[in-house]
Amino acid sequence: MDKPAGPSSFAIVAALRRRTRARTGHAGTLDPFATGLLVLLSGAATRLVPCFVGLDKRYLTDVDLTSTTTTGDPEGEVVERHQAPSRVELDAALARLRGEVELPVPAASAVKIGGERAYRLARRGVEVDMPVRRSLVHALDVITYGGDSAASVGDAPLETDAPLDTTVASVRLELHVSSGTYIRAIAQALGGHCTTLRRVAVGPFGIDEAAPVEDAALLPVAEALERLPAEALENVPEAVRAGVLALDSPVGNGSAA
Q1: Which of 84, 148, 204, 247 is deepest in the core (most CB within 10 A)?
Q2: Is 56 known to be catalytic?
């Protein structure tokens, strides 16, 4: 599914459930402000969720480098405003974020702290020490540097050749990361916050295959599984996979979208 900005991922799951009248699951959510690829599983295919949840992800994001927010995205309150970094400073910060990195989980996340979701604590103004998560950043590439932090993914390009000695108010990034990586945490490590976030791929599945929930086609399970690496398939016993494949049909009794 190609999720629009605004609704929660669970609202998209519910919409597909109403459309198919079948049990529906997901292989990883997106924040309400974010857009892009959601991998959903319908009917018997929900038994295969473990095959899909650990896949690498690819994103595009715009980062405002002049302020941080309570959530790491445009929905939070501004915590601090500061001067934008120079291109040299930004490039050095980006270099430190490539490879294996450890970053604090954003306070506005679904991680449980003392048995309660972190985002619920954050909404009540409760300050907690967030755990650190280890992630693998396979690629973190600058698409454009620019001085207009209001520009967003899909708009006209930002300035592409910012001089090294000038400040950079915003940057557009392309990322390839391991599952569970918070892009908002990367933006915060750069001293900024995400103004847009779009997931463009989950493992072998790309955004070019997706459509709005009301129009999206259901992919036969056999075709979806054929595209997964062997280590992902091993997350579900072969007998379970065989049982789901036996029920597979193009109308949704066991399909991925």
Answers
A1: 84
A2: no
Read off the tokens for 181. 């990586």
| 66-108 pLDDT tens trace | 999 988 999 888 999 999 999 999 999 999 999 999 998 777 6
Buried b (16+ CB within 10 A) or exposed e, 146-159: beebebbbeeeebb
CA distance linking residue 106 with residue 119, whole number of Å: 9
Please write the tens of the pLDDT for every residue from 179-226: 989 999 999 999 999 999 999 999 999 999 999 999 988 899 999 999
Choose the catalytic residue: 2, 31, 62, 64. 31
The answer to whether 70 touches 109, Cβ cutoff 8 Å, is no
Separation CA 9–CA 30 (nearest Å): 6
Cβ(188)–Cβ(63) below 8 Å:
no
**234: which 2 tokens?**
């091993």
Q: What is the CA radius of gyration of the chain?
A: 19
